[in-house]
């Protein structure tokens, strides 16, 4: 009997030790990025503590499995309401998965409990922006009271003033941000657009040049830099930028047009003709496609009102242009505050093209967004 008792005791202690040693091993696997094996060890451990659930959630989050990460963060918080990191990460994941109303609730509570934490105000402001809550700017301003050099918040506040056409305020906030973080390309881009709005071509040119120095390459940057050079009569440099636009977007009508104009100014007429011919050929494509292409470029620049007008014109020319109809809904989603209006645009797209095979991908996107908006609508009523 004594031998049997001793054997059972040894087995019990061995199992306990194995369970205890499994957690440090799981932590080590997590630290080197072996997330799946770490998750398996955490799940197979005898511990069902809040900290274990939090670690499982963090591992799922690292793999990009947002649903399971949220599920495990929720379990962790149910067991321990003091897990601040879990609450913060959970709020971020709600925001990432477009559950803006729930994210708003999480960060409101965190702000109440930890009123000196600037990041919680920043996250709350982001959630409010998505909910068209105009008090978002107050949360961003609170961040700057706590941390005057908070780069992401400086950008959000500057963007707010840009939309309000408070261009001088944008300059002030931008300069402040760049003092402590000169490589802030998002702010430099906003300052470049601000300079264009102020018709300060030299300043805009300098900002777009900075972006290229920081290895930022896009149609938007090269085309706008080319436009600055063109208007400053630096035609050779303008031509070079418009060619770079064409390399990135081969059917960019305006780039072909202005490349041709630049060459005309340089008296390189034969070369200019080749670019201008292509511009004419591109302009002869179906009119609705021309307007759709133009509207998409406006949309990318967040000029949603003008984009909406051009998408509607495209649809007047061709009511079966599913891309124009979908992008119109996206623009409306970004431009209008009223949830019902935004929902109606997506519903119209789905009704018109639910049986159109070519629109399958856009239908998938529209239905997902519709689901999010209807959830917001439901939560707003409660």
Overall outline: globular
What percent strand?
under 5%
Backbone structural class = mainly alpha
Distance between the termini: 65 Å
Low-confidence stretches: 1-19
Radius of gyration: 27 Å
The biggest sheet amounts to: none
Discrete helix count: 21
Note the run of SSEs as H and E: HHHHHHHHHHHHHHHHHHHHH
Instruction: State the CATH class of the domain at 148-216.
Output: Mainly Alpha
Counting DSSP E segments of at least 2 residues, the number of strands comes to: 0
Mean pLDDT: 89
CATH architecture of the domain at 148-216: Alpha Horseshoe
Spell out the CATH superfamily of the domain at 148-216.
Answer: Tetratricopeptide repeat domain
Amount of helix:
over 70%
Say what the CATH topology of the domain at 148-216 is.
Serine Threonine Protein Phosphatase 5, Tetratricopeptide repeat
What labels describe this entry?
382 residues, globular, Serine Threonine Protein Phosphatase 5, Tetratricopeptide repeat, single chain, mainly alpha
């Amino acid at each position: 009997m004594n031998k049997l008792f001793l054997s059972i005791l040894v087995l019990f202690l061995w199992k306990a030790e194995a369970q205890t040693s499994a957690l440090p091993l799981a932590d080590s696997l997590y630290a080197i990025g072996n997330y799946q094996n770490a998750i398996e060890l955490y799940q197979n451990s005898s511990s069902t503590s809040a900290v274990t659930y939090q670690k499982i959630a963090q591992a799922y989050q690292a793999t990009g499995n947002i649903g399971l990460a949220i599920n495990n963060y929720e379990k962790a918080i149910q067991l321990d309401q003091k897990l601040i990191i879990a609450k913060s990460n959970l709020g971020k994941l709600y925001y990432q998965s477009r559950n803006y109303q729930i994210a708003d609730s999480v960060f409101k509570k965190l702000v109440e409990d930890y009123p000196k934490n600037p990041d919680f105000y920043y996250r709350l402001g982001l959630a409010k922006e998505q909910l068209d809550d105009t008090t978002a700017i107050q949360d961003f301003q609170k961040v700057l009271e706590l941390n005057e050099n908070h780069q992401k918040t400086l950008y959000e506040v500057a963007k707010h003033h840009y939309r309000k056409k408070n261009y001088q305020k944008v300059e002030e906030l931008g300069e402040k941000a760049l003092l402590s973080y000169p490589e802030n390309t998002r702010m430099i881009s906003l300052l470049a657009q601000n300079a264009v709005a102020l018709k300060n071509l030299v300043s805009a040119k300098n900002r777009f040049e900075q972006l290229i120095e920081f290895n930022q390459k896009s149609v938007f940057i090269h085309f706008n830099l080319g436009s600055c050079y063109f208007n400053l009569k630096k035609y050779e440099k303008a031509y070079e930028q418009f060619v770079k636009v064409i390399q990135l977007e081969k059917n960019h009508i305006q780039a072909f047009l202005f490349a041709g104009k630049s060459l005309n100014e340089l008296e390189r007429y034969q070369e200019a003709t080749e670019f201008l011919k292509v511009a004419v050929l591109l302009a002869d494509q179906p009119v609705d496609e021309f307007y759709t292409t133009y509207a998409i470029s406006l949309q990318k620049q967040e000029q949603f009102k003008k984009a909406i007008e051009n998408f509607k014109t495209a649809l007047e020319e061709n009511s079966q242009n599913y891309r124009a109809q979908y992008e119109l809904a996206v623009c409306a989603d970004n431009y209008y505050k009223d949830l019902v209006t935004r929902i109606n645009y997506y519903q119209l797209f789905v009704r018109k093209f639910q049986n159109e095979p070519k629109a399958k991908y856009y239908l998938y996107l529209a239905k997902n967004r519709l689901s999010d908006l209807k959830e917001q609508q439901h939560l707003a009523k409660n």
